[in-house]
User: Fold this.
Amino acid sequence: MLKFLYTFLMLLLLTYSGAEAHSIHYRVENKGISVRVFYAEDDPTSYSSYEIFGPGDKIPHQKGRTDKNGFVSFLPDRQGKWAIKVYGESEHGMHRVQIEVNVKENLFMESFKKPLVAQYTRAFVGISIILFLFSLWVLLKRRKKQEKN
Assistant:
């Protein structure tokens, strides 16, 4: 009887450990940093490739594709300046953006940096329109002057 009990326990342990080795474990955490990348407010960079580099890294910490809403999420493992490089392709061609995120000691985002043109897009467009109209006015004025001579 004792031999049967030992055999049964051994089979039970072997069966359990084998089942444990073939399972996948997971944990849902409310940590990390998410960035939404888009061409326009209603036009996300869906399924665009990206690379994330940690402070001083030469090899990417993470690579992948944005989700359908243009989100990139990652969990930093140290503080410092992180670079997210997103490569999106639209009907206007290939686009690239680099987003810099400063991560604090507690691994939460401290701040992020936008390029100057991204911060003041409307101002740049407005100034460009004004310069275009001024250039057009100067060109027309010179043509009229040349026609008189």
Summary: Helices lie at 2-21, 116-119, 121-148. The radius of gyration is 29 Å. Strands lie at 33-36, 38-40, 43-44, 49-53, 62-65, 71-74, 80-90, 93-103, 109-113.
